[in-house]
Amino acid sequence: EIPVVSLNDDGKIVLSEEQGLSDREPVNKEKRKINLSSIPFSLTCVIHKNYILADPTAEEESIMDTIVTVVLDSSSQLVSLHKPGGTVLAYTSAIQDCIALTRQRVKELQKILEEAISGMEVD
């Protein structure tokens, strides 16, 4: 569910109930369920010179030049691409490589998810 949120004095979105802001006008008036048409899968890549490292640790992320997070849905359609700060990429090929790696990861994760679901006991 999406919780009820309000804006605090700094203009940041916060949970109304946790921040004691129930007296303020909520940004969204009621909780509601999120409806997803497909499952999103994400992969973060770090790029350093001509190298791409998929699924880095926090330590690896902290020492790399560029971080890119790609989110694809279960049909491998691009849902989101996030590249916070860092250096400007000279080539779009690095982003395309990250998307290709994410597509491979989606296939792997879908297989794992399907195996886990098929192995579950249903009453």
Automatic annotation (TrEMBL):
<keyword id="KW-0963">Cytoplasm</keyword>
<protein>
    <recommendedName>
        <fullName>Exoribonuclease phosphorolytic domain-containing protein</fullName>
    </recommendedName>
</protein>
<keyword id="KW-0539">Nucleus</keyword>
<dbReference type="InterPro" id="IPR036345">
    <property type="entry name" value="ExoRNase_PH_dom2_sf"/>
</dbReference>
<keyword id="KW-0271">Exosome</keyword>
<dbReference type="InterPro" id="IPR050590">
    <property type="entry name" value="Exosome_comp_Rrp42_subfam"/>
</dbReference>
<dbReference type="GO" id="GO:0071028">
    <property type="term" value="P:nuclear mRNA surveillance"/>
</dbReference>
<dbReference type="GO" id="GO:0000176">
    <property type="term" value="C:nuclear exosome (RNase complex)"/>
</dbReference>
<keyword id="KW-0694">RNA-binding</keyword>
<dbReference type="GO" id="GO:0034473">
    <property type="term" value="P:U1 snRNA 3'-end processing"/>
</dbReference>
<dbReference type="GO" id="GO:0034475">
    <property type="term" value="P:U4 snRNA 3'-end processing"/>
</dbReference>
<comment type="similarity">
    <text>Belongs to the RNase PH family.</text>
</comment>
<dbReference type="GO" id="GO:0005730">
    <property type="term" value="C:nucleolus"/>
</dbReference>
<dbReference type="InterPro" id="IPR015847">
    <property type="entry name" value="ExoRNase_PH_dom2"/>
</dbReference>
<keyword id="KW-0698">rRNA processing</keyword>
<dbReference type="GO" id="GO:0071038">
    <property type="term" value="P:TRAMP-dependent tRNA surveillance pathway"/>
</dbReference>
<dbReference type="GO" id="GO:0016075">
    <property type="term" value="P:rRNA catabolic process"/>
</dbReference>
<dbReference type="GO" id="GO:0000177">
    <property type="term" value="C:cytoplasmic exosome (RNase complex)"/>
</dbReference>
<dbReference type="Pfam" id="PF03725">
    <property type="entry name" value="RNase_PH_C"/>
</dbReference>
<dbReference type="GO" id="GO:0071035">
    <property type="term" value="P:nuclear polyadenylation-dependent rRNA catabolic process"/>
</dbReference>
<dbReference type="InterPro" id="IPR027408">
    <property type="entry name" value="PNPase/RNase_PH_dom_sf"/>
</dbReference>
<feature type="domain" description="Exoribonuclease phosphorolytic">
    <location>
        <begin position="39"/>
        <end position="101"/>
    </location>
</feature>
<dbReference type="GO" id="GO:0034476">
    <property type="term" value="P:U5 snRNA 3'-end processing"/>
</dbReference>
<dbReference type="GO" id="GO:0035925">
    <property type="term" value="F:mRNA 3'-UTR AU-rich region binding"/>
</dbReference>
<dbReference type="GO" id="GO:0000467">
    <property type="term" value="P:exonucleolytic trimming to generate mature 3'-end of 5.8S rRNA from tricistronic rRNA transcript (SSU-rRNA, 5.8S rRNA, LSU-rRNA)"/>
</dbReference>
